[in-house]
Specification:
83% helix, mainly alpha, 5 helices
Amino acid sequence: MTLTISAVISLLLMVFFMFAGSIKLLGWQKFIFETQLSFFKKYGLNRAAMFTVGLVEFSAALLLLISMVSSQPKWQVLGASLIAVTSVGALGFHFKFDKWTDAIPAAVTLLLSLWLLALSY
């Protein structure tokens, strides 16, 4: 089995956002959860906002998984679009409240999601 660039990017984004989203939803990894929650509080947001972001992230990852197993690009487009929107939001908050280095993961996920979108057309 050979993996296409699109499949590799989808897999990377899916794994990352299942991990990140599940922590925001369930708080199962204490250190990362508390670090993320402190970012949200610094931004003037609460736990409910963090849960909502986690729900969007995890949903986007599930859409990428569905697109991989069903070979239906519409789910990939929707998942990548949700990740792009989430990444833009993260970039905005990081650039406003944090050091630019804190924005690097969001910049990488934005670029990967945009690349995935470009490959979808």
